[in-house]
Design goal:
The protein has 150 residues and is α/β, with parallel strands linked by helices. The chain has one domain. The protein is 28% helix and 19% strand. It contains four helices and seven strands. Strands 1, 3, 5, 6 and 7 form a five-stranded mixed beta sheet that branches. Strands 2-4 form a two-stranded antiparallel ribbon. It is globular. The chain starts with a helix and ends with a strand. Keywords: Oxidoreductase. InterPro entries: Various_sel_PB. One of its GO terms (molecular function) is oxidoreductase activity, acting on X-H and Y-H to form an X-Y bond, with a disulfide as acceptor.
Length: 150
Amino acid sequence: MNGDQMMRAHSASLPGPTFDNPAWVTPGPLRNARVAIVTSAALYVSGDDPFTATDTSFRVIDRTRRDLVMGHWSPNFDSVGVKLDINVVYPIDRLEELAANGVIGSVAPRHISFAGNQPDDVATIRYDSGPAAAALLRQDGVDVVILTPV
């Protein structure tokens, strides 16, 4: 069994969290929706605080692509694709194209980045940083988010 197969087998054996009565919202038509990106690629703007090994906070990324740094440090993650095209984890150009073509209503002014290395219980994201990030997106009138997990 190679390393990739071992990681997949290990990941498949891990229990996932379950949530009683999860919130569910049915958005309106995409052509009217404001869309944001939420990624776990540990992206941050150069000069901001980088993510730490146990960081459960998030970083706000404005709509531009200026000086983005990927703080993901796992040896199991191949970052070559991201270095070639940031849209792999932060598909801002694709969203801009969709907005220009009328497929979506607009692109949010701010997007959210978490680090993918989270505690097994996801309690901090569930009760603290997740709701705080969602509140920022709601302030911006976001209807739909694209999740780009890393």
